[in-house]
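Reagents: none. Just compute today. Netrin G1.
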Amino acid sequence: MYLSRFLSIHALWVTVSSVMQPYPLVWGHYDVCKTQIYTEEGKVWDYMACQPESTDMTKYLKVKLDPPDITCGDPPETFCAMGNPYMCNNECDASTPELAHPPELMFDFEGRHPSTFWQSATWKEYPKPLQVNITLSWSKTIELTDNIVITFESGRPDQMILEKSLDYGRTWQPYQYYATDCLDAFHMDPKSVKDLSQHTVLEIICTEEYSTGYSTNSKIIHFEIKDRFAFFAGPRLRNMASLYGQLDTTKKLRDFFTVTDLRIRLLRPAVGEIFVDELHLARYFYAISDIKVRGRCKCNLHATVCVYDNSKLTCECEHNTTGPDCGKCKKNYQGRPWSPGSYLPIPKGTANTCIPSISSIGTPPKFNRIWPNISSLEVSNPKQVAPKLALSTVSSVQVANHKRANVCDNELLHCQNGGTCHNNVRCLCPAAYTGILCEKLRCEEAGSCGPDSGQGPPAHSKPALLLLSALLGAANPLVF
Ligand SMILES: *[C@@H]1O[C@H](CO)[C@@H](O)[C@H](O)[C@H]1NC(C)=O
Ligand SMILES: *[C@@H]1O[C@H](CO)[C@@H](O)[C@H](O)[C@H]1NC(C)=O
Ligand SMILES: *[C@@H]1O[C@H](CO)[C@@H](O)[C@H](O)[C@H]1NC(C)=O
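Predicted 3D structure written out:
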């Protein structure tokens, strides 16, 4: 009886998830903020962590060039062909649409041939440096979810810096340096992302991987987001739970992938030879055909929808939060301090909703931060751990998204504070710690830290882990 129910659930799961397959870039199942469930008290809302889908962020940015008059064509000028630097009769003319190369062409639809591109003026003022800043602004915090990819139509620059801002362009930090010779250009040893590890993932490196001039075919520069995720989630990003766990507990890591603005600083065009050919300066310029930035609005796990209205991105906050990033509690919902949602426990996370202010309800409800209310889920047999979840109470979206996700992995860690990974589904924590990754002091969970700490774990945690492993064990692998 239990087996047949299990099989039918599983069959449905397979059907639904095969329908839902075309989602290679979505890195989560946090796509509903709440769902209705049945408890002994009847139908109630169950709140979950939620986030907007990852999408093409270039549709929502503003671009600014410095110096402002650096785009070619005003006045018209000739430049040399990319393929043949001695054929110098190509024309850029801003007043003729077919010969103009305005900045918008970095973000238009590519895939046609020949491609459209932005182009700078040529290096006619050599030896004065030819430098351009391309600033991309969202006026909103966004979380990057895939590599930043810049496709050059000219040779790739000899020197370039990618910078980021987290405060709407007030301050800037380097993100990555690019040069044909890192030591010469930036006094840095050349490195590639593959030389990094989990412990050095936040290091800012200079790479020579993308900076050869005209000679090679490749025209692409990457800022490698996925390779950095892979230090936590494994080579094919199968173990996203591990990444989520780490993002949840390490603010610095979360911030590393978060930006409000990006700046591409082009410092020296591709020369391709040791010396600059002063007789043919029209050979040297920058041209970019495409910039890809994928990400999502940062809504602190309190919204699945981010709207673009009036040239502005805003989270549609749930859980009674408000603000552009859902960064505070609504008025009259300040019964406890605001906190972001949590990815844990996988796969639903914790909503950390804002609750009505104390004055309006008397005493604040006792709140269980991480663990779901297990008694409302009726585990049928604690050993076999097949949750008796009535399917009708769970939306198909949610069912499809309960895919397999390992919680931990002894190679890639993630049990913290000396915890060890058990069967990839739970961390065995030292006595003083608890939480899915042993990330929390046990006394904190019990709200009794201080001189008399050392309380037992919350009664819920054991069945919750068993339930979790049942959900994970029955599901399909997370496909990327
Ligand atoms: C580009 O921006 C940097 C700061 O990020 C600034 O120091 C530099 O002068 C700017 N360059 C140009 C050409 O505007
Ligand atoms: C938020 O407040 C509204 C009433 O304004 C209420 O109906 C709703 O259930 C609340 N949501 C949460 C997540 O507490
Ligand atoms: C869990 O759910 C049961 C039944 O709905 C309820 O009586 C109990 O108070 C809930 N516990 C918590 C901590 O919310």
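The first strand starts at residue 34 and ends at 39.
Action item: order primers for follow-up constructs.
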